[in-house]
Specification:
- The complex is a heterodimer of chains A (about 150) and B (about 450).
- By secondary structure, chain A is mostly helical.
- Chain A has a domain of about 100 residues.
- In chain A, about 65% of the residues lie in helices and about 0% in strands.
- Chain B is mainly alpha-helical and about 450 residues long.
- Chain B has a single domain, classed as MFS general substrate transporter like domains (Growth Hormone, Chain: A), CATH 1.20.1250.20.
- Helices cover about 80% and strands about 0% of the residues of chain B.
- Chain B has 18 helices and no strands.
- In chain B, helix 1 packs antiparallel against helix 8 and helix 6 packs across helix 14.
- The longest helix of chain B has about 50 residues.
- The two termini of chain B are about 30 Å apart.
- At the A-B interface, helix 1, helix 2, helix 3 and helix 7 of A face helix 12, helix 13, helix 14, helix 15 and helix 17 of B.
């Protein structure tokens, strides 16, 4: 019987040590809630301002669709990914486009009101957002490394 | 131990190692034959199922004519091994594996009868036979890994053919011992416990190897060396565990150690082979205690050793098939879930990183494409290949964060399967305790 007690103690000790070292929580990080307010990181230059506008816009659309901001980014990874995403969430690709567009326009307004953008740049960005499909906007952004 | 006994033990070890020896080679086999992952599992299932189904008929045959059954079994097993090594298609490989299982059943069951002559006493024969089986099964992944890395996966089969043929030498002077009385009923408790333990051990002998190679990207050689902790502990435990009596106490202690080790693998606090060593030590020791005690218990006082040995082989390999059937869907489901989680957490790491803002979209797209590519090839994406070519501290930082997320996701994907395997092992306590007073027939 002592052998059984020793084996049980050794097994329990091993499990307790592994759990104490974080074994139960060793998992990928959880993504943030897109509906929660995020801190406006003091942007350094136009690139960072545009980045925050895009992320904030994606947050808005993600919150409406009950998905994460990261899901929205992955949805725009390719045309196939966007179609797959739209199918999964029972919306059309145009509706996804419109939600992101609305989110972007709202975040441009926020940036302008916060003084991070002057009105000329804000109008220019609004023009881009109105004029181009979101996929094209993303491609356009990638081709403008020197913004 | 005399030479014939050693040769017979080696043959038993090689045959039973075949249950897990190709685990490390599975990715290479997948690359060679381009089959679905669910189909790939047949390389393991075919052998174990055939062995489980043929063990009893082979045992009854071996009881009457152990010498020809062993001889024919060895020849067919060698031929089947060569067929696997030269298999031109996946179907032929699976057929070869099934044939190995059938012939292996004949070899293992007949070897027990022949060992009784070579080792002089039935009790000693049973002990040698049980230890050979434990060492073979536990060493399988390590030997398979080393051979796959050094000589290619086909070498696993080419090497075992001549090794088992050597055992034919053991037939010199061997003869059939007529056992007139009926074989008697099998020891239900010991065999039921063997079935459940073997089901749980699938996680340690198969899933752990897949985690090391496919999940944490170790070379087959590194993985093979990493999993030697388990057989070493098993050999030591089988040798020194004999002092623990009665048998049901040794078996129960073994079950608790295996279950504890498997649970610890389910709650790994970090990725890395070294974190698997303490659980492997527990599993190996438990394996040495439990399998030796239960096999001895199943054979103790039973005159037809081959038949009762056949029952233990049937139970063990039916357990392996049960483990594959129970654990594979859990593992594949969790792998898909983890894939979605790591894509999201990886994208979050890119968006929050300090790389130039306008590069983030391209990097996130490349990662999504790399994950898709890796999925097609049933492997884990190489983060440094996707992001590492960019220069700058922001990128180096991002690569390490992405790698961490990937390690977490992969490790988590195996967690539930290890925990269920631990429960499967713990369930073996029920038949052990219920049958602890069962008398030998």
């Amino acid at each position: 019987m002592r052998a059984i007690a020793a084996a049980a103690a050794a097994s329990l000790a091993l499990i307790v040590v592994y759990l104490a070292l974080g074994g139960a929580s060793y998992a990928p990080a959880r993504v943030a809630d897109p509906c929660a307010v995020r801190d406006w990181r003091n942007p350094q230059g136009l690139q960072h301002t545009v980045e925050q506008i895009v992320l904030s816009g994606l947050d808005g659309a993600a919150c409406k669709l009950h998905v994460s901001r990261e899901d929205m980014v992955l949805a725009f990874a390719s045309r196939d990914a966007l179609s797959r995403f739209a199918r999964q969430h029972h919306v059309s690709t145009q509706q996804v486009d419109e939600l992101v567009r609305a989110g972007l326009l709202r975040s441009i307004d926020d940036a302008e009101n916060a003084g991070a953008l002057n009105s000329t740049i804000a109008d220019l960005l609004r023009g881009f957002v109105h004029r181009f499909p979101i996929e094209q906007l993303i491609s356009l952004l990638q081709q403008l490394p020197g913004v | 131990m005399r030479t014939p006994a050693v040769l017979l033990a080696v043959a038993v070890g090689v045959v039973l190692a075949d249950s897990s020896v190709v685990t490390i080679a599975l990715p290479d086999i997948l690359a060679r034959y381009h089959v679905e992952i669910s189909t790939l599992a047949w390389v393991l299932t075919a052998f174990n199922l055939a062995l489980a189904l043929s063990a009893l008929p082979a045992a009854f045959l071996a009881r009457r004519r152990p010498v020809p059954v062993f001889g024919v079994g060895i020849l067919v097993f060698s031929a089947a091994s060569l067929l696997c090594g030269f298999a031109p298609s996946f179907g032929v490989l699976v057929a070869g594996r099934a044939l190995q299982g059938v012939a292996g059943a004949a070899v293992v069951c007949a070897a027990l009868d022949l060992l009784s002559q070579a080792a002089r006493t039935e009790a000693r024969a049973a002990r040698v036979w049980a230890v050979a089986g434990i060492v073979g099964a536990a060493l399988g992944p390590a030997v398979g890994g080393i051979l796959t890395q050094l000589l290619g996966w086909e070498s696993i089969f080419f090497v075992q053919a001549p090794v088992v043929l050597l055992a034919l030498v053991a037939l010199r002077g061997a003869h059939a011992v007529v056992v007139p009385e009926p074989a008697g009923r099998p020891h239900v408790g010991a065999n039921a416990a063997l079935l459940l333990i073997s089901g749980g051990l699938v996680a340690a002998l198969f899933l752990l190897v897949i985690l090391l190679i496919n999940g944490w990207r170790l070379d087959p050689l590194e993985a093979g060396l990493a999993v030697t902790v388990m057989p070493l502990a098993a050999i030591a435990a089988a040798r020194f565990g004999r002092t623990i009596t009665p048998l049901w106490v040794r078996a129960s202690s073994g079950v608790l150690l295996i279950a504890g080790g498997l649970a610890a693998l389910g709650w790994l606090p970090h990725a890395g082979a070294a974190w698997t060593f303490p659980p492997q030590l527990a599993i190996g020791a438990g394996l040495g205690f439990a399998l030796s005690a239960l096999t001895e218990r199943a054979l103790a006082g039973r005159s037809a050793q081959a038949v009762h040995g056949g029952w233990t082989i049937a139970a063990r390999h039916a357990g392996v098939v049960l483990g594959l059937l129970v654990l594979t869907p859990i593992f594949t489901h969790d792998l898909h879930k983890s894939e979605r989680e790591v894509l999201a957490s990886g994208t979050a790491a890119v968006l929050d990183s300090r790389i130039p803002p306008l590069d983030k979209i391209a990097v996130a797209r490349h990662i999504a494409a790399a994950v898709d590519d890796a999925k097609q090839q049933a492997r884990i994406p190489d983060v440094s290949e996707v992001v590492g070519k960019h220069e700058g501290s922001g990128y180096a930082d991002l690569v390490s964060k992405l790698q961490d997320q990937l390690d977490r996701a992969v490790t988590q994907a195996f967690s539930h399967a290890f925990l269920v395997a631990a429960l499967l092992c713990l369930a073996a306590l029920v038949p052990i305790l219920l049958s602890r007073r069962e008398v030998s027939v």
